[in-house]
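Person: I keep going back and forth on a fold encoding question. Show me how you would write down a chain together with its backbone fold. Please set it down just below, with no commentary around it:
Helper:
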Amino acid sequence: MKILAIIPARGGSKSIPLKNIRKLDGMPLVAHTIRSAKKAKKINRIIVSTDSEKIAEIAKKYGAEIPFLRPKKFARDDSSTLDVVRHALQFLEENENYVPDIVTILLPTSPFRPPNLIDKTINTLKNTNATSVVSVHSAKLHPFKGFTFEKNFLKPFIRDHLKYYQRQKLPPLYHTTGAAYTFWNSTLKKYGHYYGPRMIPIISDDDKTNIDVDYIFDFFVAEMTSKYWKKYAVKLRKS
């Protein structure tokens, strides 16, 4: 079975300039995701979709393939991951006659994903009737306790918000983490998106795994976590 990992890593980033090649714990950010993909047991091909020759050079160094440089029209601020994945799959089919059975999208903004999480999404997809399997975490900020801002005043997001005065009364809500979006290639072809109608979650409430590096503060959190979290957690458990 052909199982392809696609790592989208464009060169432009407004929030953190050159984010994907900035060093985290001695390695470029994108290299952490490549390393996880290489350690996963189920993946048999890894490509990085990038418009940057510098990122391409670094990705090759760490063991990923660069079968193309992504066209600029798919590397803008408003370019969607869906467009990037479609372009990659179309290129591979037209130029290499390569059509994977399963695809997993691994965002480089999730540097601490464990390889077994990737394998778990793949195994779950293969052993169920899911159209996709995605990594998620429980929402810490629930919209039912949120407010909108209208006519100079805060308005509850939902009318009966007061009944959710306890966290335990909130209905479960989850957000995708970016660690893995795994789907059948046929899901994308049939439904026009990699989710499809039957999404199964892999729930991770490990704070380190769920770190998502989008802004400068996130990078700071990632660096501090990498340096100090393990020792700090052990210290707290002993106290």
User: Anything to note?
Assistant: The beta strands are 3-8, 23-24, 27-28, 45-49, 102-105, 132-138, 147-150, 153-156, 174-184, 199-203.
